[in-house]
Amino acid sequence: MTDFNHKSVLLFESVDLLNVFSSGVYVDGTAGGGGHSREILKRLDKNGKLVCFDKDPDAIDHINNLFKNIDNINIIKSDFRYISSELDNININKIDGVLLDLGVSSYQIDKPERGFCYNQDAVLDMRMSKTGLSAYDIINSYDIKDLSKIFFEYGEEKFSWQIAKNIEIARNKKIIKTTGELCDIIKSSIPASVRRKGGNPCKRTFQAIRIAVNDELGSLSECIDSTFKKLRIGGRFCIITFHSLEDRVVKQKFTSLSQGCICPPDFPICVCNNKPKARLVNKKPILPSEYEINSNSRSKSAKLRVIEKILE
Ligand SMILES: C[S@@+](CC[C@H](N)C(=O)[O-])C[C@H]1O[C@@H](n2cnc3c(N)ncnc32)[C@H](O)[C@@H]1O
Questions:
Q1: Closest C-alpha residue for ligand 1 atom 20
Q2: Among the atoms of ligand 1, which is closest to the Cα of residue 11?
Q3: Interval between CA 33 and ligand 1 midpoint (Å)
Q4: How far is the first Cα of the chain from the last one, in angstroms, to the nearest whole number?
Q5: Quick one: DSSP state of residue 120?
Q6: Sheet of 49-54, strands arranged across
Q7: In the CATH hierarchy, which fold is given to the domain comprising 130-213?
């Protein structure tokens, strides 16, 4: 069995807001260590159902093992952008709630060979699905402009151009193979006075590469659009984010779904006839308590947003 170590973030807050009723059908789009799934399962009876998704084969092995004695569960290895079509494949037409707990699990970060971590030297990888384009491919083949754009847009890194330029210089001499080699290049691209302030100078660039490798924002955006259509009226969509870029996507999508008229403000009467399809369950995001932050530092940046479907 995979040794899967992950402390679930905003566990009760998110599952409480999912409004689980015992015979409902629920989706955990990011099953990971199974903490949120387990809490949902506790609230279901034999007529209820949980469908678990994860694109990481290690997480799926773990979930299969963890829930091997449970009948009312389906476990699917897939990107959550395909939840809607995967549900069609198993003849589930409508669902009562869906939860996404975004990002990487502690298991993925703590396994150096997955290449997510800038504190340990390992092969450049960062693929959640363990397939397709890897960090190695991006770092060794993207041109300097694309690298810089990724670091700036997904990492909000001020020294994006300098880092991209130094990557190009380094890889012209020798292929960049490891996280350690990349960290050395990043550190040498950031002035010492800036490096001394704040946390690890590699954090922003690693976040940016991870987002690009896994097309995290694209998946999230597609998932919200298509999975919302699968919700029954009264069904809820709960999303936990960990950085401002993914939170912005969730906030914009949820706000747009819960918006009524979208006519320009100077129109005397409404011509769009747009009706809100959802209501915001919490106007402001729910944040972890001080107790949770103290007992799990990874929860520090978490934000939970929830909507409820009110119209097809
Ligand atoms: C923070 S962990 C989830 C932890 C889980 N909620 C728990 O309580 O143990 C995020 C998980 O989502 C998975 N994941 C991230 N993006 C995904 C995507 N686009 N499609 C499917 N799984 C994804 C990751 O592989 C990881 O296992």
A1: 79
A2: 8
A3: 8
A4: 42
A5: S
A6: 73-77, 49-54, 25-28, 95-101, 231-241, 303-309, 278-280
A7: DNA polymerase; domain 1 (1.10.150)
Cβ 19 vs Cβ 236: under 8 Å: yes
Neighbours of 165 (CB within 10 A): 16
Which tokens belong to 135?
Answer: 């960090």
Tell me yes or no: is domain 11-107+216-309 CATH 3.40.50.150.
yes
The H-assigned helical ranges of the chain are 11-17, 35-42, 57-66, 83-89, 106-110, 135-141, 144-155, 160-173, 179-189, 192-196, 203-213, 216-230, 244-257, 290-295
pLDDT of residue 1: 47
Q: Where are the domains of the chain?
A: 11-107+216-309, 130-213
Could you tell me which residues come within 8 angstroms of residue 36 by beta carbon, excluding any fewer than 6 positions away? 8, 11, 14, 15, 28, 30, 99, 101
Evaluate: CB of 80 within 6 angstroms of ligand 1: yes
Is residue 57 within 8 A of residue 130, CB to CB? The reply is: yes
| Pocket of ligand 1 contains residue 8 by CB under 6 Å | yes
**pLDDT (tens place) for every residue of the chain, 312 residues total:** 456 778 999 999 999 999 999 999 999 999 999 999 999 999 999 999 999 999 999 999 999 999 999 999 999 999 999 999 999 999 999 999 999 999 999 889 888 899 898 888 999 999 999 999 999 999 999 999 999 999 999 999 999 999 999 999 999 999 999 999 999 999 999 988 877 777 888 999 999 999 999 999 999 999 999 999 999 999 999 999 999 999 999 999 999 999 989 899 899 999 998 999 999 999 999 999 999 999 999 999 999 999 999 999
Region of residue 282 (phi > 0: left; psi between -120 and 50: alpha; otherwise: beta): beta
SS3 for 100?
Answer: strand
